[in-house]
């Protein structure tokens, strides 16, 4: 019969500890996956029963902080019928102008899209009249970004460009209507806005 030496007992304890750690990791990963799947499923459901509402309220901080929020209305019952993007026309004190654009996802490579996806959601909400109180802040932000000490902005105009999404036809295989433009807000920049 072989005697167990202190070294063999320590080696056995390390193996046992390693096995326990692997089990704890596996359980933690599975708990996270189940939580994540339940959270996404309840958040994305097109109906809201009492249980779903309770789950939505409890997972809201996680969904919002991780940027995973998306409502069902993206798909139904009335999906978006236009392609649109925002720009700003900046008029400087010397009369020169500059066109400033929010990042457009279709013009960015994949790493940039991932990093700047929030701009798309911000844009979609910014142009909505309900969010008109945000317009002066957006204009001031753009004025600060585009101004320099010797070249201050005088006016910022927020512009939406859009094209209707139409059913594809032989004459219009892309299903896009003509581009239209609307200046939906004009802001007179004050000197204190550029500080």
Q: What's a quick, concise take on this entry?
A:
The protein has 4 helices and 4 strands; from the N terminus they run H-H-E-E-H-H-E-E. It has helices at residues 6-44, 50-66, 110-126, 135-146; strands spanning 82-92, 97-101, 153-164, 180-188. A hairpin with a 4-residue loop joins strand 1 (82-92) and strand 2.
Structure description:
- With 195 residues, this protein is an alpha+beta fold.
- The chain has two domains: 6-72; 80-194, no CATH class.
- Helices cover 44% and strands 19% of the residues.
- It has helices spanning 6-44, 50-66, 110-126, 135-146, and strands at residues 82-92, 97-101, 153-164, 180-188.
- The chain has a four-stranded antiparallel β-sheet, covered by helices on one side.
- A hairpin with a 4-residue loop joins β1 and β2 (97-101).
- The N and C termini lie far apart (84 Å).
Could you outline the blueprint of secondary structure elements for this entry?
Elements lengths: L5 H39 L5 H17 L15 E11 L4 E5 L8 H17 L8 H12 L6 E12 L15 E9 L7
Antiparallel strand pairs: 1-2, 1-3, 3-4
Helix pairs in contact: 1-2
Give the tags.
19% strand; 195 residues; elongated; alpha+beta; four-stranded antiparallel sheet
